[in-house]
Inverse folding.
């Protein structure tokens, strides 16, 4: 057995015991994403039903890099006022401010992020500028806004009438209760493998609706909301950011794959780390991941999570297996 075979055997033994321990009295079924689309590249994959984002990314892949593709894809929901979890039209915090988190990571291990950014429709593009134009990897709040404006991004109000109306209704009770699978379009995490087999990823969100002022979630944090290692693969997360931040699921998934786990096994284990240690019962977290060859894996805590994958064979929406089963 070669080095990879040994690592895989070792990983399988340790994973088996950890899943068994984690499962307690609840049976854990195998984690299998089963798209008709087979492992291949070029490929674009995104969390939730984001076919339009994938289309834009796919178009960008025809003469661009994976980084160009994920930026183009992420910009679609960012500009969509109907998507109330991302960018323009996103749900505000408790004080009525829309604040955005985003990051990008490329095949060279470069990373850029913005957190708590107000008034800029395309935080993913600002994150790319942070990566390419500054000596830093993350800018936050006022500094991020100033940088964006200096870079030529337009400052504008991102609170739509619809989001404002919902927020005003929410204020009547001010009950803070994160919703699972918000209208099937929570945070978008998007990853692409280009013609040169290079991988990049992006993640962008308005975060939890009615969060406290200053709250930052997992999406802009490398290793939490997104991680890319061009030798191995990439992973991204959606759902309750606090749970992802406590377990660094995207980094974990890529590292487990490096040790020999399949993409699906790695995603399942990342969910199980949350199940083991956190109060997860009313919360959702979902992961999607790819390896260098374009194998796909995904797993979530709650049923209802889906992802969108695009290759030369077309675009497909795939239902994800979950720890908690549907009724
Ligand atoms: N996953 C997005 C957030 O919690 O902000």
């Amino acid at each position: 057995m070669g080095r990879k075979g040994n690592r895989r055997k070792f990983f399988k033994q340790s994973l088996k015991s950890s899943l068994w321990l984690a499962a307690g009295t609840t049976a854990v079924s195998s984690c299998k994403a089963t798209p008709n689309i087979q492992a291949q590249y070029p490929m674009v994959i995104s969390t939730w039903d984001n076919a339009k984002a994938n289309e834009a990314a796919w178009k960008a892949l025809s003469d661009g890099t994976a980084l160009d593709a994920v930026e183009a894809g992420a910009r679609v929901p960012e500009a969509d006022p109907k998507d109330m979890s991302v960018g323009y039209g996103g749900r505000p915090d408790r004080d009525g401010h829309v604040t955005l988190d985003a990051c990008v990571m490329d095949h060279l291990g470069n990373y850029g992020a913005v957190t708590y950014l107000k008034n800029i429709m395309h935080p993913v593009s600002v994150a790319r500028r942070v990566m390419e134009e500054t000596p830093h990897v993350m800018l936050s709040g006022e500094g991020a806004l100033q940088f964006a404006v200096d870079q030529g991004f337009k400052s504008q109000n991102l609170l739509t009438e619809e989001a404002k109306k919902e927020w005003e209704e929410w204020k009547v009770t001010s009950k803070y209760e994160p919703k699972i699978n918000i209208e099937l379009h929570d945070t978008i995490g998007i990853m692409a493998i280009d013609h040169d087999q290079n991988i990049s990823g992006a993640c962008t969100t308005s975060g939890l609706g009615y969060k406290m002022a200053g709250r930052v979630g997992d999406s802009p944090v490398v290793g939490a909301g997104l991680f890319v290692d061009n030798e191995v693969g990439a992973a991204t997360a959606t759902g309750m950011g606090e749970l992802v931040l406590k377990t660094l699921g995207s980094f974990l998934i890529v590292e487990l794959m490096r040790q020999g786990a399949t993409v699906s096994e790695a995603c399942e284990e990342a969910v199980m780390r949350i199940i083991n240690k956190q109060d997860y019962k009313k919360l959702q977290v979902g992961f999607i991941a790819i390896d260098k060859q374009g194998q796909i894996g995904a797993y979530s805590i709650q049923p209802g999570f889906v992802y969108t994958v695009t290759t030369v064979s077309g675009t497909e929406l795939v239902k994800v297996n979950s720890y908690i089963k549907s009724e």
Observations:
- The chain has nine helices and twelve strands.
- The domain at 2-326 is CATH 3.60.20.30 (Glutamine Phosphoribosylpyrophosphate, subunit 1, domain 1).
